[in-house]
């Protein structure tokens, strides 16, 4: 069943929703069609709740002013940066917000984070100026208490290694301890999809 044939079979509201859902990552027209028909079988209050949640996700969420994790609109800082029990002298550098829950599940890290917003990738037009490197350097220099360690928890890819090396050069004058996750991580893997045991060992074996 292709998208063109769908348009001749379904009423406009259904087809419009299928088209919108098809824009989501890893969701093609067939999967979107199944989702729409699943929604059609739900009760109206459940659909209203889903619709309201979708509206709020953008309106009531912004980026943490310190680490760029997600935070509620009424707060300047995310829950992790607000947590008084966290080790504020350690910063773990990650590519995206999605990496944070993966690391938190290991229960091996109790410091703070810094979300770069991507990795250096010239073919994709992403350079150091497109990432939150300047903010990281400012945090390291101005943080109180002083930062003792910066951990690179970036995906073990060419882009991840390039990004780590670039930041390491920027941090070198600070003489702060810099470490990377242990190489139990297979080259080319995405940190978001690495299992907890492997990531736990990578943190314990960081160097």
Q: What is the highest CATH level, the class of the largest domain?
A: Alpha Beta
One letter per element, helices H and strands E, the order comes to: HHHHEEHEHEHEHEH
How many domains? 2
Number of extended strands: 6
Amount of beta strand = 5-15%
Structural class by secondary-structure content: alpha/beta
Assign the CATH architecture of the largest domain. 3-Layer(aba) Sandwich
List keywords for this structure.
207 residues, Helicase, Ruva Protein, domain 3, Dna Topoisomerase Vi A Subunit, Chain: A, domain 2, 2 domains, two-stranded antiparallel ribbon, 9 helices, 13% strand, disordered N terminus
Please describe what this structure looks like.
It is a single chain. The chain has 9 helices and 6 strands, in the order ααααββαβαβαβαβα. It has 207 residues and is α/β, with parallel strands linked by helices. The protein has 2 domains: 3-59, RecR Domain 1 (Helicase, Ruva Protein, domain 3, Orthogonal Bundle), CATH 1.10.8.420; 80-204, Dna Topoisomerase Vi A Subunit, Chain: A, domain 2. Helix 6 links the parallel strand 3 and strand 4. The radius of gyration is 21 Å and the shape is elongated. Mean pLDDT is 88; it is low at 3-7.
């Amino acid at each position: 069943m292709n998208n063109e044939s769908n348009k001749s079979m379904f009423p406009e509201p259904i087809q419009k929703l299928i088209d919108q859902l098809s824009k989501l990552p890893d969701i093609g027209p067939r999967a979107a069609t199944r989702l729409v028909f699943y929604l059609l079988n739900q009760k109206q209050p459940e659909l209203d709740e889903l619709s309201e949640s979708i509206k709020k996700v953008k309106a009531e969420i912004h980026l943490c002013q310190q680490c760029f994790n997600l935070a509620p609109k009424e707060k300047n800082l995310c829950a992790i940066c607000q947590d008084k029990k966290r080790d504020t002298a350690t910063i773990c550098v990650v590519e995206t917000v999605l990496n944070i829950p993966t690391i938190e599940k290991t229960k091996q890290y109790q410091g703070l984070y810094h979300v770069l917003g991507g990795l250096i990738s010239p073919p994709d037009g992403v350079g150091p100026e497109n990432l939150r490197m300047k903010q990281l350097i400012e945090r390291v220099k101005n943080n109180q208490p002083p930062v003792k360690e910066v951990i690179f928890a970036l995906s073990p890819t060419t882009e991840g290694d390039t990004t780590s090396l670039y930041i390491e050069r920027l941090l070198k004058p600070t003489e702060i301890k810099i470490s990377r996750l242990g190489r139990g991580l297979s080259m080319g893997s995405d940190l978001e999809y690495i299992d907890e045991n492997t990531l736990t060992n990578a943190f314990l074996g960081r160097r």
